[in-house]
Design a protein that fits this description.
Shape: globular
CATH topology of one domain: Ferritin
Largest sheet: none
Strand content: under 5%
CATH architecture of one domain: Up-down Bundle
Structural class: mainly alpha
CATH class of one domain: Mainly Alpha
Helix content: 55-70%
Bound molecules: fe (ii) ion
Order of helices and strands: HHHHHHHHHHHHHH
Pfam families: AOX (PF01786)
Keywords: Electron transport, Iron, Membrane, Metal-binding, Mitochondrion, Mitochondrion inner membrane, Oxidoreductase, Respiratory chain, Transit peptide, Transmembrane, Transmembrane helix, Transport
Number of helices: 14
Oligomer: single chain
Main location: mitochondrion
Radius of gyration: 20 Å
EC number: 1.-.-.-
Cofactor: Fe cation
């Protein structure tokens, strides 16, 4: 069977897993109420008579394989009271999120030492469980950049002052997170339960982050920095699970066309494994950007990610990941 949508896919979409996982029962599908046939028509690209293509307004920087392989898990130690508040909030959210997505890595590891078979049966992360987690994570991750950018935009209008370049980076981050979400949505369509969860979480998180950003942007950027540390951990585990042969459906799966185009994925490097390397590198970049912004004076300092430096030969913050600093750039080194 051929259709315009299937023709646009890097590989027939019928081979993508469908979210059928249910945390409570195998007979009901609360996360997906859609049949495999219908998923093929999930948000097809709009076709018009006159427009050939609508490329992204923010083209993605090119990452090399070697740069992406260098990305790893990291943690910025708390130094201030605000840092501790941000980290405590993330730990709280993480526990709730783990419960929802059935992701209990620490429990799984400790049970594995005593009873590997039981641990495998109870805690094994499947492709479907990871997709639920990724879709939920990305739907939340796209909120802070938009809220921060919007509030800085309004502040600039209201106070009739320059923003010093922060707005673009924040909006670009939320755009990038939405591209992660759209990519995962090409692999599985969420059912009613997940949609409801995303709706509820967005309602609560958007408002909470909005108020928090009005009160203290510094803590909010640190909070996002810690959130991104968690995102890097999640994607690192997914990559490791593919490499260990624990996710057979993803082993030979190709990235959807939306991803191939957005990340400019070179031929021969368009597998699910490659895709996760790109996404993890993006999260590592957000981790760096937000820890850096959390180190700055948000009222006065220029955005180091869009600035031109006097000593151009030295490494500086930029859009790529060639000089990635997992715990962020310190203020004295950039402004
Ligand atoms: Fe993301
Ligand atoms: Fe992110």
């Amino acid at each position: 069977m051929s259709s315009p949508l299937m023709a646009r896919c890097a590989r027939p979409i019928t081979s993508y897993p469908v979210i059928t996982t249910n945390l409570w029962s195998h007979s009901i599908r609360p996360f997906s109420t859609t049949s495999t046939q219908q998923i093929r028509l999930f948000f097809p690209e709009t076709q018009t008579k006159k427009i050939r293509v609508t490329p992204p307004a923010w083209p993605h920087p090119i990452y090399t394989e070697e740069q992406m392989q260098r990305v790893g898990i990291s943690h910025r130690e708390t130094r201030t009271f605000g840092d501790r508040v941000a980290l405590a909030m993330i730990r709280l959210l993480r526990s709730g999120f783990d419960l929802v997505s059935g992701y209990r890595h620490e429990h799984a590891v400790s049970m594995h030492e005593k009873d590997p078979a039981k641990a495998e049966q109870k805690y094994r992360m499947t492709e479907e469980k990871y997709l639920i987690r990724n879709i939920f994570l990305e739907s939340i991750a796209g909120v802070p950049g938009m809220v921060g950018g919007m509030l800085r935009h309004l502040r600039s209008l209201r106070r009739m002052k320059r923003d010093n370049g922060w707005i673009e980076t924040l909006l670009e981050e939320s755009f990038n997170e939405r591209m992660h979400l759209l990519t995962f949505l090409q692999m599985a369509e969420p059912g009613f339960f997940l949609r409801l969860l995303v709706l509820g979480a967005q309602g609560v998180f958007f408002n909470a982050f909005f108020i928090a950003y009005l009160v203290n942007p510094h803590i909010c950027h640190r909070f996002v920095g810690y959130l991104e540390e968690e995102a890097v951990i999640t994607y690192t585990r997914e990559i490791a699970d593919i490499e260990a042969g624990k996710l057979p459906k993803w082993e030979h799966m190709q990235a959807p066309e939306i991803a191939v185009k957005y990340w400019n994925m070179p031929e021969g490097h368009r597998s699910m494994h490659d895709l996760l390397l790109y996404i993890r590198a993006d999260e590592a970049k957000h981790r760096e950007v937000n820890h850096t912004l959390g180190n700055l004076d948000w009222k006065e300092d220029p955005n180091p990610y869009v600035s031109v430096y006097r000593d151009a030969e030295k490494p500086h913050p930029g859009k790529g990941i060639e000089h990635l600093k997992p715990t962020g750039w310190e203020r004295k080194d950039v402004v």
